[in-house]
């Protein structure tokens, strides 16, 4: 397994997100302007792009947002999502980041809780899918 960091959306990440979020989960509004400036991680397994996520600085000093965590179906159940999240947190620590926030799909809350995230605030809908904000203080 290898994780590479990119500034701006690499083709490998775009393909994974299209497959997972648009084709499997039927989201329509997957790509946005943040993709151009965010840092993106792509996890490769035996040279094949298997998972991705992105992160970027928030509006509060020391705060970062992580999102668009996606793992292709054949690679699920191998802790690749957790690996991507840990790597994003490590990269955020390098920049002095201390808080990570994310807007989780409600069905993914148990996964994020296992990674040390806590839910807060009301449930909100994005394209008819319930999401909730979660956060974690980095050590």
Task: Note the topology.
Elements: E1 2-7, H1 11-24, H2 34-37, E2 39-45, E3 48-57, E4 63-71, H3 80-94, E5 99-105, H4 109-114, E6 118-126, E7 129-137
Parallel strand pairs: 4-5
Antiparallel strand pairs: 1-2, 2-3, 3-4, 5-7, 6-7
Summed up, the helix count is: 4
Overall helicity? 25-40%
Query: Roughly how many Å apart are the termini?
Result: 25 Å
Strand arrangement in the largest pleated sheet:
1-2-3-4-5-7-6
Poorly predicted runs are none
Total strand count, please? 7
The helix/strand class is: alpha+beta
Protein model, in words:
- The chain is of the alpha+beta class and 139 residues long.
- It has helices spanning 11-24, 34-37, 80-94, 109-114, and strands at residues 2-7, 39-45, 48-57, 63-71, 99-105, 118-126, 129-137.
- A seven-stranded mixed beta sheet has the order 1-2-3-4-5-7-6.
- The longest helix has 15 residues, at 80-94.
- The chain is globular and about 35 Å long.
- The protein starts with a strand and ends with a strand.
